[in-house]
């Protein structure tokens, strides 16, 4: 048991800490993600770097002092929640961003609402974050499970893939991604023949792939991400599943391509919210990012989302005048059009969903690729007004009566 003196000191620290950053004249941003497991290359240090680059660019137009800190949530909601409470209560963090792992993101979003702090999801996937679990303190950047589940399934169904078998990551993100794709399959007259679910960070997919192969479904759909998707695709190639069935990764990011290899990955299709080779601004950012990344990686759409979101957040803080009232800052973010060198112009809806186009991508062949990160060719665009779930369909309590 704490002594009365130690207890009093701790209590005083907890009361005083939220104001520390403001007293010191420094706004604090916390980048929380997976630094050591299946998502480490897909967000990890790259997201921290993206936030730092946004802060550096913001410094060209504002004298506000900003600090970026980071932590590894280990893909555990209790760990992520503990970090968020410590950051908000003790370390004076004003905003938390990234949050790849939907279960962690949901927990941290709830804490942000409780503490009236800002939470932004760039790596987080579940569309529940702007649906029934929406919050006046949360903004969802980059992508979500509705957009990718429906968008990918729609494209595959149009190509004749009518029967589906899902291999799904067994947590909130995977379940939601599977549901969104299933809804599109059922609505379009297709049929789901089976589902198997695997733990996060699975190394051996053989039993799951054999079940998918035995189903004889037209499509083997991977409702997972990061290292799990990479392992599943590599092992599917060993079983030669792609010779008779179509392998579809519902989430497929830039870092997956070198990890799999162009020879195996060529021809795979994907949807991303951004690609580094879109224009001169995105190419310049990618080069700057890679020069400072510890593994010299190019940025994916979630890294770019962190940059874009941090820049818009900081503009909103300057407009409000202080980061203290998180809801007021999010209201300002929604009221201001978004505009930055990577994502261009956009908006944030009442439910917290950031709206922008999505890009249809296809992995290049080894002959087409000119360098390690020259991975995709753009085959189409989903317009911003068609890319995400209709506002009225999400069930977000914040948008009753909104259009």
UniProtKB/TrEMBL annotation:
Pfam families, A to Z: Peripla_BP_6
GO biological process: amino acid transport
Cited CDD domains: PBP1_SBP-like
Organism superkingdom: Bacteria
Domain called Leucine-binding protein: residue spans: 26-364
Signal sequence residues: 1-21
UniProt keyword annotations, A-Z: Amino-acid transport, Signal, Transport
UniProt-listed InterPro entries: BCAA_transport, Leu-bd, Peripla_BP_I
Family: Belongs to the leucine-binding protein family.
Protein name: ABC transporter permease
Species name: Pseudolabrys taiwanensis
């Amino acid at each position: 048991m704490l002594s009365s003196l130690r207890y009093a000191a701790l209590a005083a620290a907890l009361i005083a800490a939220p104001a520390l950053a403001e007293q010191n004249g420094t706004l604090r941003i916390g980048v929380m993600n997976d630094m050591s497991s299946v998502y480490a290359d897909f967000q990890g240090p790259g997201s921290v770097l993206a936030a730092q680059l946004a802060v550096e660019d913001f410094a060209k137009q504002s004298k506000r002092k900003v600090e970026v800190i980071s932590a590894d949530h280990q893909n555990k909601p209790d760990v992520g929640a503990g970090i968020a409470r410590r950051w908000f209560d003790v370390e004076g963090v004003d905003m938390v961003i990234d949050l790849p792992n939907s279960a962690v993101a949901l927990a941290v979003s709830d804490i942000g609402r409780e503490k009236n702090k800002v939470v932004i999801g760039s790596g987080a996937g579940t569309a529940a974050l702007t649906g029934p679990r929406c919050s006046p303190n949360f903004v969802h950047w980059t992508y979500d499970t509705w957009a990718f589940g429906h968008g990918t399934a729609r494209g595959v169904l149009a190509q004749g893939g009518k029967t589906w078998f899902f291999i799904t990551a067994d947590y909130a993100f995977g379940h939601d991604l599977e549901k969104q794709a299933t809804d599109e399959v059922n609505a379009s007259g297709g049929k789901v023949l089976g589902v198997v679910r695997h733990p996060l960070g699975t190394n051996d997919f053989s039993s799951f792939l054999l079940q998918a192969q035995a189903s004889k479904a037209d499509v083997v759909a991977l409702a997972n991400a990061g290292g799990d998707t990479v392992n599943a695709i590599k092992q599917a190639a060993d079983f030669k599943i792609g010779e008779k069935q179509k392998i579809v990764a519902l989430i497929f990011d830039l870092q997956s391509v070198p990890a799999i290899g162009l020879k195996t990955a060529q021809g795979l299709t994907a949807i991303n919210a951004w690609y580094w080779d879109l224009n001169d601004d995105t190419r310049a950012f990618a080069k700057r990012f890679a020069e400072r990344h510890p593994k010299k990686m190019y940025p994916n759409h979630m890294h770019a989302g962190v940059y874009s979101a941090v820049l818009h957040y900081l503009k909103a803080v300057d407009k409000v005048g202080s980061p203290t009232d998180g809801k007021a800052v999010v209201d300002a973010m929604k009221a201001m059009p978004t505009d930055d060198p990577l994502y261009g112009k956009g908006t944030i809806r009442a439910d917290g969903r950031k709206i922008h186009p999505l890009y249809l991508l296809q992995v290049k062949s080894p002959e087409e690729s000119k360098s390690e990160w020259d991975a995709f060719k753009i085959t189409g665009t989903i317009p911003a007004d068609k890319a995400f779930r209709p506002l009225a369909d999400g069930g977000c309590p914040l948008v009753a009566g909104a259009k």
